[in-house]
Amino acid sequence: MPNAAQMSEAIHTLTKILQHQKDLGDDKILLQENDLATLRNLPQQFRQQFAARPAIAAASPPVVNAPSQSQGPATTESHPNTPPPTATETTSPNKRDQLNALAREVKADEAYRCLGTLGTTMVFASGNPDARLMLIGEAPGPEEEQDKKPFRGAAGQLLDNILKAMKLTREEIYISNVLKFRPLPSNQQDAAASNRRPSKDEINAGIKYILAEIDVVKPAVIIALGGTAAHSLLETNAPLKDLRQQEHHLKGIPVIVSYHPSYLIHCESISADKYKKEKGEVWRDMKLALQKLEHSARG
To answer: For the chain, what is the domain count?
Structure first.
């Protein structure tokens, strides 16, 4: 028969698998959030119950202890990339639960479907809900639809290199897009096209959700990647070059504007010199974001 530690590990592993499948949008996972919370609590309850057992002499018969009401509520075990929850998070939904609820709301939103111009595969977000840095791009493309995560393919690889230079990983930050569905090509002959710029109607249908994500994550700094993200979040039509190297604010959070990684890929197709120049400009923006992060940590 497995001991308490083995049972705790098995339940913890099962819970992570179920949570991961729900995050991926698996409709076959019928467990509600409170059911998952109960599963998350079980390992801690096992540990508390085991620790509460009195020492038993070798000659004493086995004793089964009933759960003690004085032990108090078990602490909810959170996602591996998030810190242990605070006391308030044990009685109210944590950030991951709130984001999962928001994702379900996005998936069911008829305003998206009524447009008839977007794909049906939702790409919500990825990363750490407790991240201090939040990156926001434009909209998913074909690679993102396939993986159901933002910033994949060539643009995603370039972003990974930028993060590496910043001494950061995807697991440490939170990445999202203004739109959660891919803008479909207007011409059926161009169905294999990678991307098109989202329309005003599409932006209007999705902007409330990215703003809600910001409210949940509460990052210390936001980086808006590309014109669509910058213009939508800051409600401006100013040229991207005029918005860069400045500190903007959204909901009291510093916003740094930079070029989208796909723009750098476009520059590389033009000339090596242009790519080198614009890549240096992006690095200037990233250094400014790091300075703002460091400042917020001190203050």
So the answer is: 2
DSSP per-residue letters across the chain: ---HHHHHHHHHHHHHHHHHHHHTT-TT----HHHHHHHHHHHHHHHHHHHHSPP--TTSPP-PPPPPGGG-PPPPP--TTSPPP-TGGGTS--HHHHHHHHHHHHHH-HHHHHH--B-S----EEE-TT-SEEEEES---HHHHHHTSSS-HHHHHHHHHHHHHTT--GGGSEEEES-SSPBPPSSGGGTT----PPPHHHHHHHHHHHHHHHHHH--SEEEEESHHHHHHHHT----HHHHTTS-EEETTEEEEEE--HHHHHHHHHH-HHHHHHHHHHHHHHHHHHHHHHHHHHH-
Residue numbers of the chain with a pLDDT score lower than 50: 1, 3-4, 46-92, 189, 192
| pLDDT tens sequence across 221-272 | 999 999 999 999 999 999 999 999 999 999 999 999 999 999 999 999 999 9
pLDDT at 15: 65
Tell me how far apart the alpha carbons of residues 289 and 215 are, in angstroms, rounded to a whole number. 19
pLDDT at 190: 53
Please calculate the CA angle 24-264-207 and round it to the nearest 5 degrees. 45
Q: What does pTM read for this prediction? A: 0.68
Residue 280 lies in a domain: yes
Smallest CA-to-CA distance from 256 within 278, 232, 279, 287 is with: 287
77 in a structural domain: no
298's tokens: 């001190």
Q: Domain limits at 47?
A: 4-69
Residue 220 domain flag: yes
Judge contact between 124 and 187, C-beta under 8 A.
Answer: no
Residue-wise pLDDT for 9-31, tens only, equals: 666 566 666 666 666 666 665 55
